[in-house]
Amino acid sequence: MEFLSTLATQFIGLFQAGGETFMGFVTGIIPTLVCLITAVNALIAIIGQEKIEKVAQVSGKNFILRYTLLPILAMFFFTNPMAYTMGRFLEEKHKPGFYDAAVSFCHPITGLFPHANPGEYFVYGGIAAGITALGKDLGPLAIRYFLVGIIVILIRGIICERLTIQFMKKGEEANV
Fold it and tell me: Cα(9)–Cα(12) distance, rounded to whole angstroms?
């Protein structure tokens, strides 16, 4: 009998933990995202959607800028997760590569600009604590991490774009 009581308590405890997590989202990340979305839309309205589209389109025409400058600016100014909305100004075939590049830059930017990805700062903070305990300077690590991140997002963006274009062509051939 005690086993069934323990099992029932643990079963309902699972749902209570889920409810607590949900309430954490409702009182934490969801209002933050709503405010960020509102602020980004207001900023776009103030600057003018045409100007922002122009920057994205100019960057989008050059594969190096599309997978380096655009994700860096998006992560720096709009932070994670709003940075991905910059992809809406790109052609469809470039959106997956941009997303791949932007999401891959979430961690490398954190060493120099922690505001860009505060939800994952604990990862960098743990590494930073270890480096600091060794008496080392964090600056060189953060700069190297940032620079390697730029190289990685460029490679990932290009590969993802090429794969996307191939899949789109195969999809078009299948529909013919």
Answer: 5
Copy the structure tokens of residue 104.
Answer: 């891959």
**Nearest Cα to 105, choosing from 60, 150, 56?**
150
Structure tokens at 86: 């910059």
Average confidence (pLDDT) per 10 residues, the chain, 176 residues: 85 86 75 72 81 80 92 86 86 93 91 79 78 89 93 97 94 77
User: Do residues 156 and 104 touch, judged by C-beta distance below 8 A?
Assistant: yes
Question: Tokens in use for 135?
Answer: 């008496």
Q: Residue 146 class from Cβ within 10 Å (0-12 exposed, 13-18 middle, 19+ buried)? A: middle
pTM: 0.69
Query: What is the DSSP secondary-structure string of 55-70?
Result: HHHHHHHSHHHHTTHH
Residue ranges of the alpha helices (H) in the chain? 2-27, 29-47, 49-61, 63-66, 69-82, 95-104, 121-133, 138-175
